[in-house]
Sequence to fold (350 residues):
Amino acid sequence: MQAIKEKFESLFEDAADRKQLDDLRVKFLGKKGTVTTLMQHMKDIPNEEKKEFGQSVNALRQSIQQKLEQGIEEVEARLLKKKLENETIDVTLPGRQRPIGGKHPLQHIIDGIEDIFVGLGYEVYEGYEVESDYYNFEALNLPKSHPARDMQDSFYISNETLLRTHTSPVQARVLNAAKGKGPIKIICPGKVYRRDSDDATHSHQFTQIEGLVVDKNISLADLKGTLELFLKEIFGQDREIRLRPSYFPFTEPSVEVDVSCFKCGGKGCNVCKQSGWIEILGAGMVHPNVLEMAGFDSSEYSGFAFGMGPDRMAMLYYGVEDIRHLYTNDLRFLEQFKYIEERGVKHESI
Ligand code: 2NL
Fold:
């Protein structure tokens, strides 16, 4: 028994893992293990020594069992320690930098304009980019013979459908859906298309924002007051505006709206081409024909409408010299606008 004990202890000292400890258990305590077979010698032991022999074997079994259990705990603690060491995380390591985008400069302008009109109680409508000939032209007092309807100038999809050439059809649809009852106060931002050769100042796809107000007793004074408030909000409170007579088929009278130059204040500079004024909007009183075609009684209702090009405004605002920069999505261009403030049209940011 002493020899068995010593043999076990020497093997136990060398056991390095769970598997070797299990093997030791089988070898000493298993069914055919050394300690188990020792018991089979009981029959050869004289009766008066049987009790002592049995107790000794049991004591040996217990001591081996205890050692093995303790060994397993030690081995597991050692394995856990090793695992934890391998899995150590260096929390001081800097994180991975993920590239983040920013709002497109044109979207800054559009959002800024939308904010101002939403603040005045206008609703925003986007409509469809593929339009019917009726809503794009006919409903806007542009009859079939009108030069603006030249096939050469628009992207036609079929005889009756085309890519909208302005956002006015959105307004014509809202007008039509109102079934002759005001008030209507909407702005319509969106992409528009003209069949044009692209160059620094022309793009076959560009953006437009139009506004429309229809109610009883709407006058040119309401139009002027609204546009003055809007343009001062965008270009600065010390700006002035002026209205010049103009012509659009869907408004009568029609006006061109200028704002005093935000850069030189009206003295004349490179931005305003020495004139002191920047042409920024077209507008007018909704033509009675347009109201009547949409089902409004033009003796009861009147309205004003205006349209502007956010592309040109973005170019003026940020000093962009080629409209194509707004549409080619070159990251070297776009990244320069990543950090401009949310209200991208505040004059302080020019
Ligand atoms: C410009 C001028 C304008 C309108 C758009 C409009 C829409 C309806 C009725 C009457 Cl439904 N008018 N839109 C009116 C005047 C001018 O746009 O220079 N745009 C870039």
